[in-house]
Amino acid sequence: MTDPTDSPRSNFIRQIIEDDLAAGRHQRIATRFPPEPNGYLHIGHAKSIVLNFGLALDYPGTCNLRFDDTNPNKEDVEFVDAIQADVRWLGFDWADRLYFASDYFEQLYGFAIELIGKGLAYVCDLSAEEVRAYRGTLTEPGRESPYRNRSVEENLDLFARMRAGEFPDGARSLRARIDMASPNINLRDPVLYRIRHGVIHHQTGTAWCLYPTYDYTHPLSDALECITHSICTLEFEDHRPFYDWCVANVSVPCKPRQIEFSRLNLEYTVMSKRLLTQLVAEGHVTGWDDPRMPTIAGLRRRGYTPAAIRAFCERIGVTKSDNMVEMAMLESAIREDLDATAPRRMAVLRPLKVVIENIPAGQVEQLPAGNHPKDTALGTRTLPFDREIYIDRNDFSEQPPKGFKRLMPGTEVRLRNAYVIRCDQVIKDAEGTVVELRATADLDTLGRNPEGRKVGGVIHWVSAAHGLRAELRLYDRLFRVPVPGAGGAGFLDDINHDSLVVLTDSVVEPALAGAAPGERFQFEREGYFVTDPDSTAQRPVFNLTVGLKDTWGKGQR
Ligand code: ATP
Ligand code: MG
Fold this sequence. Notes:
seven-stranded mixed β-sheet; Rossmann fold; 3 domains; 12 helices; CATH 2.40.240.10; 24% helix; 557 residues; binds adenosine-5'-triphosphate
């Protein structure tokens, strides 16, 4: 046996699989990722995807993508399509193993008949409310339904008529016949089928008015696909006895094993699909792909890479203990990836014009600049340098705080990839707002320091004539507190209303012309940005992915 701590990727599930393979219980493993198509995938799903598809890649095996589509009311093809696109984007491939639980409706119906024949299921006429009242509590046993001892013939007849549509919604259900006194409430004759008229299922249309429950469908779908290890989150631990009961009592080809792990909880966001749906439906965000959403589509639009998300999922590990992961961990994963891979560019967020008086109007110099400080393979581009440039308002101060290393009246600063300039004059409007600076460049300082003088800082800049006006969307965390809603008031009360600042007047260097949606850059000294799908050649739009450093709560922006 290997020590589960000997590799960062090792975990208790890998240990179980290795033991199963070593003991010859399986030659190949089969896992599945089983989303319900009732919303977009989020970073919590990514944990499950990386785990299930990752296992199939690391051991000889396969991973199926299966839609658990037993609840047609909340499901939609929009979600079916988005989920497939997101799993693919994360870098995983289910090949020809795309399944729908609804593909098995006929087989599941057959299994129900088998259960009825064995005296293990019955048609119950209690209403949903009565079923609940009969169920008992954690401390009291339940009561048996008066319909529990119907004959097999009567059950078969009623069940067939349920399918034929003879009874209205809620009039009857099919229930497993297990044990109303079981300490596990999930074994107290759980419902297997409900009647639902008038719904249009996104896969089966109106073929059925009888829908199997999730708890009945899931184990049998796993068994039909010969899943060896059915991995799910901890809240299903109490459902495992019923999972095993289903698999044991019908004629399925395989007997999968359910293994539970703790779900990902992430600070400063919510992950429940109900709450995410509410954020979208009530317009608190612009959609499922709003860059502040924890959805895969949102993270993609925010500029996250599949590699960073996978690295994050590997890093948080797989255990059985509930925990809350710091947002900083996700942010550092993307920072690490982009630091290595993102070309550097210059963008002036809040432009202030500087006229360099010793450069004649009309003279343009093309200055070479490396795209990456360490990786020369990323190449170079040229920066047009001329008489009028923009610097950021925050890089100039008349009354600088102590330690200010940027531009001040009468002092020098280095323009990144260009010359040292000195501020000679400050021009203000009638209100006293600084509108322009006049400066002199020391033309002897390209790539070297001026002799005998100390230049404190380096700032970025963009040529006024050659730069492009751009819209910069500065995104921040969607919630102000680590656990939204924990304070007792609703989670909406904890929304961070400063989570989006739009700058419409920014100027970016000309090399960013034509940046394709999804292209990522480091805007020097500002952060990592990605081109938004809203971007056009006339009006580039960039989203802030993440700042260069973790400044949350430090009041730096
Ligand atoms: P919700 O309860 O919010 O509707 P769900 O977990 O039921 O979401 P599913 O579509 O059923 O959503 O999830 C598909 C798979 O992803 C399941 O196997 C589930 O266990 C897993 N999963 C969902 N959320 C998380 C999470 N936060 N961390 C890890 N795995 C998750
Ligand atoms: Mg679910």
